[in-house]
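User: I'm writing a tutorial on reading structure tokens. Could you give me a worked example: one chain, its sequence, then its tokens, then a sentence or two explaining what the tokens reveal?
Assistant: Sure. Here is the example chain.
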Amino acid sequence: MITSLLPLVAAEEVSANPLTVDGGLMLWTLLIFGLLFFLLKHTFWPKILEAVREREQRLEQRLADAERSRAEAAALLEQHKKLIGQARAEAADLIAKAKVFGQKEAEALLAKAHQEQDAILARAQREIAAEKEKAIASLRLEAVDLSLAAASKLMEKNLSGAANRKLVEDYITSIGKRA
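And here are its predicted structure tokens:
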């Protein structure tokens, strides 16, 4: 069939002017264009439109997902900032409590040291007072012995009796009360 059309095409003279209108060619062109348009409109066009709508929906879904992800990221960032702020506040609070605790412990240790110092001082004062009393008593005994020795030399008589000792001790006591 194609071979039978070739002599017809060759036989026709092709016009060299591009502005000339060939009615048959125009009719066939419009008929083929209408047929293709009808086929496209009823078979391919709905599929193409459906594919475009699906792509548009996917893009809108992706945009919505991206917006939701961005909002979640912003919320997580805010939550993270709050947690960091809380952690910093807790750390500052712990540091302040540790400082207060350290100061209280230092004050307690200092008070305990003062108490121990006062106790040692009081004990030393008691020991000193006891030693003083012992020294005074020892001095009194020596004074009594010296007085007896002096009196015995004066009288040339040995005064060693308990009554004489008592008499001298009373005298020294009375002298100590006057001074």
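What the tokens reveal: The mean pLDDT is 83. The longest helix spans residues 23-155.
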